Amino acid sequence: MKILALDFDGVIVDSVLDSLFVGHNAYLRLYGPGKKKYFGGELFTFENWEETKKRHQEEIKYYRALRPYIRGATDYGLIQKLIEENKSIKNQEEFDNYRKTVKFDFEDYEKEFYKERERLQNIDYRAWFNLEPPYPKVIEGIKKLLEEETKIVIATSNRRKAIARSFTPEYFGFAIEPEGILDKRYGEDKSEQMKQIVKLYNVKFEEIYFVDDQLNHLIQTRLLGVKVLLAGWSYATEPQKEEARKQNILLIEKEEDFYPIVKNFLKNTVLGGGSLLKIKNRKGEKDEDSRL
């Protein structure tokens, strides 16, 4: 049996505004509202959110630029701190070095982050859900794959409790059982989640096909024998994409290509080198090579 494992943030949904909204509030609740002056030093609410976005477009733009370097929930607090300190980060190495040297209450922030997200979901789950819109073509592709009886699981650094409700017909339009959502309880290292998939579904690592927007996660899991694909439609930077090509990791540039590429990848139609994929044209008359 083949298993398609999908990351959540950056693969299925664009969670930039959710992480900003929740992360900002968690940061202020930890250090005190009004003491941190970026974004006006005010807590975000569903009622003031639209006006806030208009007034702080530059801060949001910078936040979005830093999003590709995130590895887990605690890093959302680091972005808040970087914005507050008006520091410039240009690549993953600089971000990781900052993380190693900065004085920051990682454990307390993480607790506050998930506490704040739960608070917002309890106020209005639909309003929270709208903060992280799904990628339409990815959702469409997942529906098709499920209809074709593809086994799909979620491998995420998020919390199952926070996102399970989204995987219902009411929200995404399809269902994945909570048991099929492997979350951060298994560790933020995706290799541990791959090991759990092997145990739960009695498969080999080579039978797992994993899509993530974080290159380092793919490099880690490929060492186990997992087949990996980089989601290029969200947060992956050009240097990360170039590194993926150098390492022969398949890159899906556009969300529109998610379904045809994944479907063919599951059928083992990958050509040598990892940079080409043989895809049937719509009429099925002949094969054509499509660069990823």
Structure explained in plain terms:
With 292 residues, the protein is of the alpha/beta class. The chain folds into 2 domains: 3-13 and 132-291, Rossmann fold, CATH 3.40.50; 16-129, no CATH class. It contains 13 helices and 8 strands. It has helices spanning 16-31, 49-55, 57-66, 74-85, 92-101, 106-123, 125-129, 136-147, 160-163, 190-201, 215-222, 238-246, 258-266; strands at residues 3-6, 151-155, 181-182, 208-212, 227-231, 250-252, 276-280, 287-291. Helix 9 links the parallel strand 2 (151-155) and strand 3. Helix 1 (16-31) crosses helix 6 (106-123) and helix 8 runs parallel beside helix 13. The longest helix has 18 residues, at 106-123. The model is unreliable at 269-292 (pLDDT under 50).
Q: What key phrases describe this protein's structure?
A:
292 residues, alpha/beta, Rossmann fold, 2 domains, 6-stranded parallel beta sheet, two-stranded antiparallel sheet, 13 helices, globular, disordered C terminus
Give a short account of the largest sheet: 6 strands, parallel
The CATH superfamily of the largest domain turns out to be HAD superfamily/HAD-like
DSSP strand tally: 8
Which word captures the global form?
A: globular
- At CATH's second level, what is the architecture of the largest domain? 3-Layer(aba) Sandwich
Strand order of the largest sheet: 3-2-1-4-5-6
Helix content estimate: 40-55%
Average pLDDT rating: 88
The amount of beta strand, in percent, is 5-15%
Q: What's the CATH class label of the largest domain?
A: Alpha Beta
